[in-house]
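look at this record:
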Amino acid sequence: MLTVVGGVYRERCMRPHWDEIYGSAGRAASAIARLGGKVELHAYLDPLAQEVIAARKGFEGFEAAGVATPEGVCFYYAHGLIHPGFRLPKSGLAPLQVEAEKVLRYGMLESTAVVRADHAVFDPQNVDGPESFHANGSTAEHLALVLNRYEAHALLGEQGLAPDVLAAHLAEREHAEVVIIKMGPQGAMVWHAGVACRIPAYETPRVWKIGSGDQFAANFAYAWMEQGLDPVEAADRASRATAYYCQHAGLPTAAELDAYDPRPIVVSERFAAGYRPQVYLAGPFFTLGQLWVVEQARNCLRDMGMRVFSPYHDVGPGPAEEVVPDDIDGIRDCDLMLAIVDGKDVGTVFEVGYAHRDGKPVVVYVENEQPEDCKMMVGTGCFMRDDFVSAIYQTVWVGASL
């Protein structure tokens, strides 16, 4: 039996449409049950969550020990990479108390969980102020931490450390047997028994982002604590399971995961050494809606470490003789292009052609145009994506390989 403790929240996304009751712990319980594991879920459950979890546990075969609460947490996303809005309960809740042999604990918004376990995996789920596993009195004889690089730096309180050094310092301070630091296209650093190893991230044609971190922690916890895999093998299996989830927006069975064979992302030597590609962000910005999409794309790319040249931000509007030379220089100086093609803006189409003539890789984000209108882009090898988040990730993956 693996005990999962954390949030069960409502998640609402505008595009692509999503309105489900999951949250970190709810998704983990379903993920592990789909793999054939025995799970007991501990969480606060509002009336709607109680109904959903009651139905889901009967269908998927896990157990639940929910604490009833009159209102729950709801997350609101415009898309999967935006910082979500959320609604919190008006009153504070007492910490959950969990004692079990094997526990997967997630950080929570509405309260915390005090865990006493033999083996525990902890994912703090908080970039801005991650909580130490032991801060609330939790204990574990064997502890594994699963964090991204931002959470790791914030938890340690030091910046600029190499991932292997960062993991070793966290292991010592947090008394952790295993530390996993997720690093985007560079995969993850797995520290165990004084040795740091890297496992790859995997490329997918589509990316459903919401809940992908939950999936990684759940699959690692199951593989390490229940199946007895060593931490590196367990982390690699978790990375492949996360790729499956991102591609299908669904949770694999053990057989489906065994048969799934995604391509690992291979980053270039200069990217691994710290170089960050420059992306030329092509797209119309003549309406507020168009400008919002450009702004979102620029923010997301920069958040993921890319440098961005945006004609709107870096040149601005103006007559052709003033702006065109600077825009052309921007294309020449870039490593690759992300083009927003919805609207069939003539300037954007010209920029795509110019970049292709210069041998620059081009990722095209287009949702609403007819295939005939995109034939030249398809035929010249552009990376075509009809989903915003997938286009952003494809841009980062292509840039990391250059």
